[in-house]
Description:
By secondary structure, the chain is α/β, with parallel strands linked by helices. It folds into three domains: 11-110, DNA Primase, Chain A (Alpha-Beta Complex); 120-224, DNA primase, catalytic core, N-terminal domain (DNA primase DNAg catalytic core, N-terminal domain, Alpha-Beta Complex), CATH 3.90.980.10; 250-371, Dna Topoisomerase Vi A Subunit, Chain: A, domain 2 (3-Layer(aba) Sandwich), CATH 3.40.1360.10. 32% of the residues lie in helices and 18% in strands. The strands form four sheets. Strands 10-12-11-13-14-15 form a six-stranded mixed sheet, with helices on both faces. The chain is globular and about 65 Å long.
Amino acid sequence: MSERIDYDTDPRLSILNVADKCGISYRQEGKRFTSVCPFCGSESGHFYLTPEDKKYKNVYHCVKCGEHGSAIELYAKLHNCTNKNAFKELMGFDVSSSTINFIKEAKKVASVTLNSIAPIEGRDKVYRNLIRRLSLSEKHYLNLRNRGLSEDNILRNGYKTLPFDKKLKKKICKELMNSGLTLAGIPGFYTDKNEWTFWTPKEGGFLVPVIDYLGRVQGCQIRKDVDKKKYPWFSSSYMKNGTQCNGFIHIHWNKERSSKKIVITEGGLKATTASILSDETFVAVPGVNAINNLFEVLKILKPQKIFIAYDMDYKEKKEVEKALNTLKWNLKVNKYNYTQSVWNEKFKRIDDYIRSTKWISHILSGSSRKQRLDGCSKRR
């Protein structure tokens, strides 16, 4: 009699077991596990293995190169074989006790009770009240000043240091609730021993509010005090009564609040800095591949001209180049007039280049699809 296989629970078909068999080392990050991408080599923090959550089970995804699929597909691609042969090989393998323990832990985390995300009005109120109760460390203040932001810019945009003190965080949450605010459904907040608190990454960091076209705080990213995966979402998707954060699109208006001409880049902090320094309206996607919500925003803004200002490392990183081409193809399909901005390659980011030259008219002007610039021009 043939073996009966439960495809959902058989540990041999777990994405973690497949990773083990493919020589992929991983570490837990909430409901997912992260590793170096075996396809594009992207650093840990971009390649995700998901044993189980509310939407997916035993899948992988690289947010840099876009590679994704099931556990069986991962094995098949890395061993250059068919899915059928991959399945047969996996069913013949033993599963290590350490992997079994990881699978059990992943299922335990996946069973945590989560809240649905609250409406934008509630999120905006909670985040703004939280920001008012937090301070900014000298270290983070100097980081922001070195980016070219003034003290007023820093204050207006709500950059604040996340505290480590557990008692302080719970005290702040009590104050928020006593003022009539509800924390359920707000990404970043969760309950610890039945008391509300909020997440601070072990590396530390400061909040970067992500603003919509009406100026409301949709959610927050965190600028961590490390170089790897510097900008995670302020989320609590794997904590009791927590809430997952979505990939919100950030907007920073020019002084005239005009969207006739906009610049698309990646990352809210970079977009805000570049917008302030150039007085151009910037729209930021949360990552080079995270453009799912972008076109809903463009329908509202109705830009006549779009400039793409992705980091200049697209010339070195194939995954960034691929994401850039995907964005351009989607803009073309949706009949948007765009130009790719290119500047001196010694400046990776658009905000770095603008801050260095204090002159951007040649980057954000012209009608060609692609403009090459030397970055050493006269000032206006």
